[in-house]
Amino acid sequence: MLDELREAIEKLPESGAKSYLFHILLRVHLLKNRADSQEEITELLNDIQEKIIFYSQERKLEREYETYHILCGESPAGSLKVGLSKENKVIGFPDFFSNGPLWKIDEEEGRKKRLEWLMDHINMHEDYLEKEYDRKIASALEEIDAIPAGKPIVIWTADNADEQTGLRYFLHLIRNKDNMCMLLILLSHIRSFFLRKRINTF
Q1: 155 touches 70 (CB < 8 A)
Q2: CA–CA separation, 176 vs 134, rounded Å?
Q3: How far, in Å, CA of 76 to CA of 192, rounded?
Q4: Of the N and C termini of the chain, which has fewer Cβ atoms inside 10 Å?
């Protein structure tokens, strides 16, 4: 239940999260001086939890976008989302291919071995690797798999080992899809500048 709730909260847009928080605090403030407030506050919190989970399940039924963009990293993906119109779906793959084993990473067995290696060799908060990392990878793979036929796919990459490896991985993941695929290669020194500008190409 906690993992489901954490995932549901992450899917809330910022405005939605702020709205939920405001209404929780407002209702608690109105209820706290009443004799039966403890029971009502508990009911309120249960109701909010159910609504958040329901909202996240509804979000799974996403509309189709005009173009689907795939790239390495959540941070560059965030910049790209700002620059593109809402008709574009951006999938930022939350991994760093410059470190760790890549054996069978398109399969559960390989991803498990890679996670074990990262936990042993990379100085990162263990909770992230055990909970967030695995869940985010699964979510990104699900989004890539769900790209509908006939919609163009744009893979963004740069001239470094991380993203060149990611490029080959993404091409492998979409190898059976009947979609037009475009490749945008950006030189590393202009990549961050380009992603921060509004992109009118798509």
Answers
A1: yes
A2: 24
A3: 8
A4: N
Give, as one character, the DSSP assignment of residue 146. Answer: T
Structure tokens at 100: 């760790």
Number of H helices, E strands in the chain: 9, 4
Q: How many angstroms separate the Cα of 46 from the Cα of each of 26, 30, 54, 115, 164?
A: 16, 17, 12, 34, 46
Identify the residue whose tokens are 């470190």: 99
pLDDT for the residue 35:
60
For residue 187, give the amino acid letter: L
CA distance 194 to 188: 10
Tokens for 132?
């967030």
Compute the distance between CA of residue 81 and CA of residue 198 in angstroms, rounded to an integer: 10
Q: Copy the structure tokens of residue 166.
A: 């990611």
Quick one: 26 exposed, middle or buried, by C-beta within 10 A (0-12, 13-18, 19+)? exposed
Q: What is the pTM of this model?
A: 0.64
Query: Which structure tokens are listed for 179?
Result: 């979609």
Angle at 72 between CA 69 and CA 76, to 5 degrees: 80
Q: How far apart (Å, rounded) are the C-alpha atoms in residues 95 and 116? A: 14
Question: How far is residue 137's CA from residue 153's CA, in Å, rounded to a whole number?
Answer: 19
Q: Which of 178, 63, 67, 169 is nearest to 114 (CA)?
A: 169
Amino acid at 89: K
- Dig out the tokens for 61 from the structure: 């039924």
